[in-house]
Amino acid sequence: MPEITTKEVVCPGNNYGLLNPLRLRKMFTSVSKAEILEQLPKLNSMELREIRDRIWQLEEEELLSGRAEPGNEEKALLDREFEDFERDPTSGSSWEEVKSRLKK
Fold first, then answer.
1. Which of 39, 77, 91, 98 is exposed most, by the fewest CB atoms within 10 A?
2. How far apart are CA 44 and CA 52, in angstroms?
3. Helix or strand or coil: residue 19?
4. What is the CA radius of gyration of the chain?
5. CA 3/CA 22 separation, integer angstroms
């Protein structure tokens, strides 16, 4: 964390004028989960899509890096799907078939 001094900081281009760095820190502190959830309904569809995409990206990174594991429901689903595959390995679709269906 950078050192905070009591010097005044000029913030051009805004209505704040001179700001004390300690006051700046208070203004830009992290927000709570409750505050984030409260603000979500106020966002437009593009902003919500951006947030969803970022969350999915973070989840994918965690799963691929091994930092996170699937939950119990996800594990149960994977187990059922694998059992289905073991019963009939030809019942599934190739990745090329899946991609083709998604493009339609």
1. 91
2. 12
3. strand
4. 24
5. 10
Cα-based torsion angle of the residue sequence 52, 56, 58, 62 in order, rounded to the nearest 10 degrees: 160
Q: What phi, psi does 73 have (nearest 5°)?
A: -65, -40
pLDDT in tens, 14-63: 555 555 666 666 666 677 889 889 999 999 999 999 999 999 999 888 88
Find out whether 102 and 95 touch, Cβ atoms under 8 Å. Answer: no
Which amino acid, residue 3? E
Three-state SS for 49? helix
The residues spanned by each domain of the chain are 1-30, 31-103
